[in-house]
Amino acid sequence: MPRISRNVQVQNLEVEFDGIRDVQADLEVRIGRLEAKVDALSKVQADLEADIDEIVGMTESLAEVGRKCMKLLSGDWISTPGVKANKPMVGSGNAGPPTKKSKVSAPEEK
Length: 110
What we know:
- There is one protein chain.
- The chain has one helix at about 5-75.
- The protein is mostly helical.
- It has one domain (about 1-90).
- The model has no long low-confidence stretch (mean pLDDT about 80).
């Protein structure tokens, strides 16, 4: 087995070291790009979290409206704190088809 001189060994190590430096520089560039992507994704995540909070709030509001509609349709509706529960709300009589009393007759022609 041939012996490698000390100078050749040093040169080989320098070549390997230069290769390691190149790899290190490449990795540093890649790390910088990844850090920039992480920052961008963090901003997107913050925007999405704000949107999600808004959607959750709207969903909760919609659910509350749905519950109130169900109460209204079931007759269990309290419109104001002074109104007793389970009592039907009495309207002015103008809701629904006109009765004989409420029909408006056309003016007579002369």
